[in-house]
Amino acid sequence: MSERAAVIALHYQNEVLHPDGKIRVGVDDETVRERVIAGAAEMLALARERQWPVMHVRIAFRPDYADCPRNTPIFRKTVELGAVKEDEWGTEFLAQLQPLDNEQEFIVTHQRLSAFAGTQLDHLLRMLDVRHLVIGGVATHSVVEHTVRDAADRGYEVTIVAQACASGSPELHDAALRSLALVAQVTDVQSLAREKAL
């Protein structure tokens, strides 16, 4: 990487990754769940070692869902499940993947498919002079895909950490990564760590 990098960590929340969460996209399989948590932890550790900014992105809606768009099946299902309500356990970050309290780590809350839509994410990244994004999250075929494509359209270089992502099925995960390879580099933490430090 020749430009300053930042990590975008998408939806590492209890509702998504904890066995008691209401969504659990791709993590009903314990092997997948453990792989994603381990991959995300390695990605965060690398960012902290390299002193890259980390954007911890969470999804959360008002308890009455007045701020939740109903134009897509995925958000209608969110309402039906009663998931990711603000100030509830489900919107909190998984214990193993908590943000650190320092000036390099930020929490961004969104209510759309892309982490950029309606948030300060782009402003924060440009303020920090970031041009290369390292992205992981759940689910690969939804928030990861939308955020990666949005980032590419905004001019960022994007690298996806495959083992820090998961979908509702391996087929969806693999298909999303194959498609995203047109606009981003798909790699693993080990390969990323071998690249020259910024």
Automatic annotation (TrEMBL):
Q: Per its UniProt record, what InterPro entries does this chain match?
A: Isochorismatase-like_dom (IPR000868), Isochorismatase-like_hydrls (IPR050272), Isochorismatase-like_sf (IPR036380)
Query: Where in the numbering of this chain does the Isochorismatase-like domain appear?
Result: 6-190
Record keywords, A-Z: Hydrolase
CDD domains (UniProt xref): cysteine_hydrolases (cd00431)
The record, for Pfam families, names:
Isochorismatase
What PANTHER family does the record point to?
ISOCHORISMATASE HYDROLASE, PEROXYUREIDOACRYLATE/UREIDOACRYLATE AMIDOHYDROLASE-RELATED
Q: What is the name attached to this protein's record?
A: Isochorismatase
Q: To which species is this protein native?
A: Neopusillimonas maritima
